[in-house]
Design a protein that fits this description.
Elements: E1 3-5, E2 14-17, H1 23-34, E3 39-43, H2 49-60, E4 65-68, E5 73-77, E6 87-91, H3 96-107, E7 112-116, H4 119-122, H5 127-135, E8 139-142, E9 151-154, E10 166-169, H6 176-184, E11 192-196, H7 204-215, E12 221-223, E13 226-229, E14 239-241, H8 246-259, E15 262-265, H9 278-286, E16 289-292, E17 297-300, E18 311-313, H10 321-327, E19 335-338, H11 350-360, E20 365-367, E21 372-374, E22 382-384, H12 390-396, E23 406-409, H13 421-430
Parallel strand pairs: 2-15, 3-14, 6-7, 10-11, 18-19, 22-23
Antiparallel strand pairs: 1-23, 3-5, 4-5, 7-9, 8-9, 11-13, 12-13, 15-17, 16-17, 19-21, 20-21
Helix pairs in contact: 1-2, 1-3, 1-7, 2-3, 3-5, 3-6, 6-7, 8-9, 10-12
């Protein structure tokens, strides 16, 4: 596997950077554009492993798509409720969004399909979504392990059948299950009523889904554990612009905190719909200054990179768990990150991965079922395993800005969401 040695900085970082479009918004927009009534142009599109698997899957299903990676746009000829090909095979790779969203779309269709996935995606949970879609009339033949991809699916509308439009679902393992059902609701003439059976009934990514559906012309009603999409609705956009990825922006904001420098990320503003914007508030608690500039939000780290630890519930912006974890050892006090059990079921067991790799760099970490507690300490150099998890690669690279000898193993796994991350990081360090 390839390795990347991070170059230690001898000065605070001062950078203005551009990050790719949001993965979460890109893949939601691709699905809604495919289900829209007519041609839809998406701008600011993220091109990465995940989004390409989504695009190739749509092409395999017969959609007419024009792609321009240089100009970062995609034109999709939407077909409403009608998937062009009534049979076929798609491969979602390691993309959780593609896996959950496209499974729901195919399961509510009138066709028969096979859904393949990477070994990593095969391990991730899907059973709550499969169970919900079965109750709506879909049929699944699990090709390897029960409740996991790969599968063969016969759509709930196959043979002229009428899908059930009321469904229960547990979203404690992933809110993507609910987003998948919500976004595919326009495939049903009578709309959809969804009842959440888990304690968790909402979240930042669900709010993104609801807002985007409304921007595409499809209203969503939410009250407590109930979500409903009315009958007869559809998606009708002509153009849609995708926001820069706040998740990606946060690595550079964390670098500013870590080194006592500054970072501006172009196009990231306080009106973003993305939940990871809450990480900026965490940096404020740690002592950073935050200003809204014309180009984007600017984070300025405390003088000499001296900041306090925090005790924080990160359930609603858990993709930043690793970003906080890697700057925590340099804080003056202990950091506790709570309510993150679900990240054990993502690209890796992220709690275990964080603990293992920080321990390997001589940092004391206490692990709980749903939390981690990171003590300040003297970080030593070493090789960081990434577990083929893009966020492990990108976040742990930040330690190398402060500590000599940090080597990121299999660093190219960041291609899942941010292909040129290490190039952008190097450029940021040279500014």
């Amino acid at each position: 596997m390839s390795q990347y040695k991070v170059k230690k900085l001898d000065h605070p970082i001062h950078c203005t950077v551009e990050v790719p479009g949001s993965k979460s918004i890109t893949n939601r927009a691709l699905l809604m554009a495919a289900l829209s009534q007519g041609e839809c142009t998406l701008s600011g599109v993220l091109f990465s492993d995940d989004s390409r698997h989504f695009l190739i899957s749509l092409l395999s299903l017969g959609y007419i798509i024009e792609v321009n990676e240089v100009e970062k746009y995609v034109i999709i000829h939407g077909c409403g409720r009608d998937i062009p090909k009534k049979s076929g095979t798609i491969d979602v790779g390691s993309a959780g969004t593609a896996a959950r969203f496209l499974t729901a779309m195919l399961a509510l269709s009138d066709g028969e399909y096979t859904i393949n996935a990477s070994e990593q995606m095969k391990r991730r949970p899907m059973m709550p979504l499969f169970n919900a879609l079965k109750c709506m009339g879909a049929e699944f033949d699990f090709l390897e392990k029960e409740g996991h991809l790969p599968v063969k699916v016969k759509g709930a509308a196959f043979g002229g059948r009428k899908p059930v439009n009321s469904v229960d679902i547990d979203i404690s393992e992933s809110t993507q299950f609910l987003s998948a059902l919500m976004m595919t609701a326009p495939m049903l003439e009578e709309g959809m009523n969804i009842h959440i059976t888990s304690t968790k009934t909402e979240g930042s990514y669900i709010r993104i889904t609801a807002k985007m559906m409304e921007q595409f012309g499809c209203p969503v009603k939410h009250e407590g554990a109930e979500y409903s999409i009315p009958a007869g609705v559809g998606y009708y956009p002509e153009t849609y612009h995708i926001e820069p990825d706040v998740s990606a922006a946060c690595y550079f904001y964390a670098a500013a905190a870590l080194t006592g420098g500054t970072a501006i990320v172009k196009g990231v503003h306080s009106n973003s719909m993305q939940g990871d914007l809450k990480f900026i508030d965490v940096l404020k608690q740690m002592g950073c200054a935050v200003t809204e500039e014309r180009e984007g939000i600017c984070v300025s780290g405390p003088k000499d990179g001296e900041y306090n630890g925090v005790d924080i519930d990160m359930n609603d912006f858990s993709d930043q768990t690793m970003t906080l974890a890697v700057i925590a050892p340099f804080a003056k006090t202990t950091t506790c990150i709570r309510n993150i059990e679900h990240i054990r079921l993502q690209e890796s067991d992220r709690i275990e991965a964080i603990v293992n790799e920080l321990n390997g760099l001589c940092i004391d970490v206490k692990e709980g079922r749903d939390r981690i507690e990171i003590c300040p300490g003297e970080v030593k150099g070493g090789v960081v395993k990434t577990y083929n998890d893009h966020r492990m690669a990108m976040s742990f690279a930040l330690i190398g800005l402060k500590v000599d000898g940090i080597i990121i193993d299999n660093y190219e796994c960041c291609g899942k969401t941010f292909e040129n991350y290490f190039d952008v990081l190097e450029d940021a360090c040279r500014q």
